[in-house]
Amino acid sequence: MGSACFSRDVCLFILLINTCRVMGNVGLADADECAEDSDDCHIDALCQNTPKSYNCICKPGYTGDGRQCEGCC
Ligand SMILES: [Ca+2]
């Protein structure tokens, strides 16, 4: 049972670190994926930064989910 307890503690420890990291990110300024150019928005989409994430919106005249936009009309 010692090893099971040990691994559970390790998991809890890792969970704690991850939780702290996530909470830290919430407390700090959000990463602007659009400015960092780490977004995967289509070239014909507008990148919109949001807390903890970002949105991709096809430009007017284009349709799609933001990752893929096609000219229409
Ligand atoms: Ca963001």
Automatic annotation (TrEMBL):
<dbReference type="InterPro" id="IPR024731">
    <property type="entry name" value="NELL2-like_EGF"/>
</dbReference>
<dbReference type="InterPro" id="IPR018097">
    <property type="entry name" value="EGF_Ca-bd_CS"/>
</dbReference>
<dbReference type="Pfam" id="PF12947">
    <property type="entry name" value="EGF_3"/>
</dbReference>
<dbReference type="InterPro" id="IPR000742">
    <property type="entry name" value="EGF"/>
</dbReference>
<keyword id="KW-1015">Disulfide bond</keyword>
<dbReference type="InterPro" id="IPR000152">
    <property type="entry name" value="EGF-type_Asp/Asn_hydroxyl_site"/>
</dbReference>
<feature type="domain" description="EGF-like">
    <location>
        <begin position="30"/>
        <end position="70"/>
    </location>
</feature>
<keyword id="KW-0732">Signal</keyword>
<dbReference type="InterPro" id="IPR052071">
    <property type="entry name" value="SCUB_EGF-like_domain"/>
</dbReference>
<feature type="signal peptide">
    <location>
        <begin position="1"/>
        <end position="24"/>
    </location>
</feature>
<keyword id="KW-0245">EGF-like domain</keyword>
<protein>
    <recommendedName>
        <fullName>EGF-like domain-containing protein</fullName>
    </recommendedName>
</protein>
<dbReference type="InterPro" id="IPR001881">
    <property type="entry name" value="EGF-like_Ca-bd_dom"/>
</dbReference>
